[in-house]
Design brief:
The chain has 216 residues and is an alpha/beta fold. The protein is built from 9 helices and 5 strands. The N terminus is likely disordered.
Length: 216
């Protein structure tokens, strides 16, 4: 890994709209980094802790009652706060590389750009939940929502596929792209419409570039 400072952990996140392949790519990335001798912890949002997994069941269940977007944001950040406290920060302090499928950018994209909650308020909420922790590298798997939604079998649909229309998912995608434009040093955008191996090659390249950077 050359210039990777093993005394400091690194935080890599994968983001993107529904059907982009975040879970698959996060798992493959963790495996590839382990093959290179990197100590990796793989986790996900919402989830990764006992509390987080219980909140995940509530937040993603197709038969959940309607949840106000602000309440959504509060619950996602509650799961996030527990994940950071219990899992992510201890791993980073131990010098590990953390790979996480989704993080705070998802709340900005979904509840902010998608559902209309004030972006600045969501940023303040995330700052409290994470204690100011931000990813060192965010890999955005980008594809049109029409393609992403078609990829998921009906049995795999969450509340966000079942209860939100196409315009919502278009706003989410555009939100992610706007976030990437605003922070080009942190984000790497990968075309998720390509074949699985091509997509993963882009993910791995972006991750290795992020890991090779001198820590801030």
């Amino acid at each position: 890994m050359g210039s990777l400072d093993r005394q400091r952990g690194r935080f890599l996140t994968l983001e993107g709209p529904e059907g982009a392949g975040k879970t698959l790519m996060a798992g493959r990335l963790a495996d590839a980094l382990r093959m290179r001798g990197v100590d990796v912890l793989l986790t996900r949002e919402p989830g990764g802790t006992r509390l987080g997994e219980r909140l995940r069941d509530l937040l993603l269940a197709r038969d959940s009652v309607h949840i106000d977007p602000l309440v959504d944001a509060l619950l996602f950040n509650a799961a996030r706060a527990q994940l950071v406290s219990e899992v992510v920060r201890p791993a980073l302090e131990a010098g590990r590389v953390v790979v996480c499928a989704r993080f705070a950018d998802s709340t900005l994209a979904y509840q902010g750009y998608g559902a209309g909650v004030d972006i600045d308020a969501l940023r303040e909420l995330a700052a409290v939940a994470t204690g100011g922790l931000a990813p060192d590298r965010t890999i955005l798997l980008d594809l049109p929502p029409e393609d992403g939604l078609r990829r998921k079998a009906p049995d795999d649909h969450t509340r966000f596929e079942a209860a939100f229309d196409l315009d919502f998912h278009r706003r989410v995608r555009n939100g992610f792209l706007d976030l990437a434009r605003r922070e080009p040093a942190r984000f790497a955008v990968v075309d998720a419409l390509r074949g699985v191996d091509e997509v993963f090659a882009g993910v791995l390249s972006a991750a290795l570039q992020g890991l090779a950077r001198t820590p801030a």
